[in-house]
């Protein structure tokens, strides 16, 4: 075939070659080199044409041809320049001859090396396709054998994925999850959420979503793991799903190795492996299924957020709109029925289901095509009692499994403590630290308590919200951390506490509204005799007989209409008293002084105004009381609390307590170890004699904007280890004697915006490890005593912002001085989770 025809390499390349030959012919004086180039081009032309034909036939890539064409294109400039050569430029012929020779050599190298390697690769690819054809034929044969043995009936949908389920109300999470799985680089994705939240349903639906189905095809494998997984059985199932003969496995390791080889064979297309219902402590099992295969994804569904595999995909309860849609579906409200409820009734019942897909299914199913009276009855029950107690046995059993995964008895007990507080409220983590330190002998700084909190969070039983968090915070300071939990889980915690008769319960949870009282409140002798309309009379009659209570924890919630008519209770064994109040005036129960074993008192006002707290003197009779936390109350004059170790005041009015004492605070609380005052807007200074509490180790005064000066004799606090004065905007002075705090490890003056200087003797703090001073915008210089930090035997971290770092720059040569500028995360989302 003549090279000049141009048919071999297309019109464009034909023109290039044509010009090349014409130019070469014009320069025949170049001699043998030109003849060699012409011969090479003529020989290549038919080969290129054949390659293109085969490429089109086999739908193969054109890499090889494009590389050849690249060599010719690179010669185009040379050819163009050669065309311009004439006899007057004869001296240039040798140079162009050299270029043509090099171009020819490059082409020869390409043909002798690259093309041979490409041929080898093509041969291996052909062999691979032949093996693939043989495998398909074997798979069909094996499938025939499976069908003969009725094993093929176990294969449903896409290689184990069950029938496509309804997934109403979950469009948004479905789309987000789909997007996560279609991303590059995702190897393991954990879908986690509360029991009954629809994790498995969503995973099953995902297998049938067109983009997922199109990408992974038949390489979608769905396996239910369960509580006691058998690895060999799971691998056998995957072999069956692949249509391959199931070999005998010598060990779990052998099973995984053979599975890896199998998946690499089918892995020419992306693979999605769904491990459904994975229980705690199964991280190792998930790890075994991780293989280095391109585009291989694992989706795990679990009540546990296995964070070692990255940020989990959290499945939250349904919002009201989607919950109504799901309820309509299960109640068949679009079909003919004996009763069609009005919209308001439906909405009230749906709200009672708390956004749980399982609860919506159970309740809607029980009401499907039922008469009006059944619907009204369900509404009443949902409003008057827990959904778990109202025709929801399936839901209760399902949620109970969430507690079964707690292997540590302490963790289960700690979860049940979540029911001590009102629903839809944020609960300070420090409250649980106080309770658990005394009930379960956990450490006082909260380390072990936070381990439990994180475990409960990982298992989706609670949520932890940090309203303000510094990235490098490691000082065990949790005043900005709060716990919230789903209503259903709180009801579950309360229900667990009610399993035994009230006189045998570890936790006695009492909810009092107005004059309404529980039956046992009016005495067992009066039950069924005195009707509810005479409950106030019953309250008086019960005082004739004292009520014995054996609970270790007593939680009493009252609303603004509570009449303060207390039962003559004898909570002799109570170690924790939790009072949840909503009234402007509140008296401690008369029986408080009988609680000889009481160790922890928590009083929290959820009302709008601060509550005037009275009968506080009853606490003076309690020699075992170690911890008191008061929130949103006006603190009365504190009585003698000889053994009190920790006092926490949050959003309290402290004027009366701190300025009207007949005795000094050091005499009233001589053994105080920790004091926390937060958001107490009326606090101006600490009471006289405060620095005589030499046992004090931690003092936190935070967000008290009127607090303006520290005591001059603060050095008397010889055991003080932590001093926090953050966000006290009016603070203008820190006593010079602060250098006398020889045990101080942590000093926090963050966001004290009007503080003009640090104490001159701050360098005398021999034990100082951390100095927090972010947001101290009024500081313009540092005292030279900080040079003494060079003598410290340990590293000193200064946590500050950019302005603070500039102040410390001249001292940066001090080897053990470390300047940190962390990012601050301010999160106000928790505000949406409260009603008060």
Low-pLDDT residue intervals, each spanning 5 or more residues:
1-13, 87-92, 137-157, 524-544, 828-836
Strand order of the largest sheet: 10-12-14-16-18-20-21-22-23-24-25-26-27
Give the end-to-end Cα distance, rounded to a whole number of Å: 91 Å
The fraction of residues assigned to DSSP E strands is 5-15%
The quaternary organization reads as single chain
The second-level CATH architecture of the domain at 658-823 is: Alpha-Beta Horseshoe
CATH class of the domain at 658-823: Alpha Beta
Q: How many DSSP-defined strands?
A: 28
Query: What is the assigned CATH homologous superfamily of the domain at 658-823?
Result: Ribonuclease Inhibitor
- Give the count of helical stretches: 24
**Main beta sheet, described?**
13 strands, parallel
Radius of gyration: 39 Å
Question: Which structural class fits the helix and strand makeup?
Answer: alpha/beta
Helix content: 25-40%
**What is the general shape?**
flat
- The CATH topology of the domain at 658-823 is what? Leucine-rich repeat, LRR (right-handed beta-alpha superhelix)
Q: Round the mean pLDDT to the nearest integer and report it.
A: 76
